[in-house]
Design a protein that fits this description.
By secondary structure, the chain is α+β, with helices and mostly antiparallel strands. Helix content is 31%, strand content 29%. It contains four helices and four strands, in the order E-H-E-H-H-H-E-E. A four-stranded antiparallel β-sheet has the order 1-2-3-4. Helix 3 packs antiparallel against helix 4. The model has no long low-confidence stretch (mean pLDDT 93).
Length: 127
């Protein structure tokens, strides 16, 4: 058998951050949930059992944490920054799927959250 694709996932990351259009959102902050799926060639790591042959999910988390620490008005902007930073740090990334959810958004609705979802393909990897 051959590996057709592989993914590293970070699911349900919970981070308090200061994103939003309203001044109060940027002062008080809110709780966010991040679900991230990164396409990456895992064949070498499947054979070698060596972390150098894969995308280290601890490093991936540090990228997400760092970008979430930079306040923005729009979730779209934050999601785009996270994706750009992941692609820059790991050139072999083939795709990025990211859902960024603001929990309890200030819009007067009873809901679990408001989200943006992006799906990006790395044209430079040929995948």
């Amino acid at each position: 058998m051959r590996a057709e694709s592989g993914y590293i996932r970070l699911e349900g990351l919970r981070i308090h951050a200061f994103h939003g259009v309203l001044p109060q959102e940027r002062q008080v902050g809110a709780d966010f949930r991040i679900d991230l799926r990164v396409g990456y060639p895992l064949t070498e790591a499947m054979q070698s059992d060596d972390v150098r042959d894969t995308l280290n999910y601890a490093e991936l988390y540090e990228i997400v944490r760092g970008e979430m620490a930079v306040p923005s008005q729009l979730l779209e902007h934050v999601a785009g920054r996270i994706a750009k930073a992941v692609g820059a740090a790991f050139p072999l990334v083939t795709s990025i799927d990211l859902v960024l959810t603001k929990q309890n958004p200030p819009m007067g609705a009873d809901c679990d959250g408001a989200s943006v979802e992006i799906h990006l393909i790395n044209d430079k990897t040929g995948c």
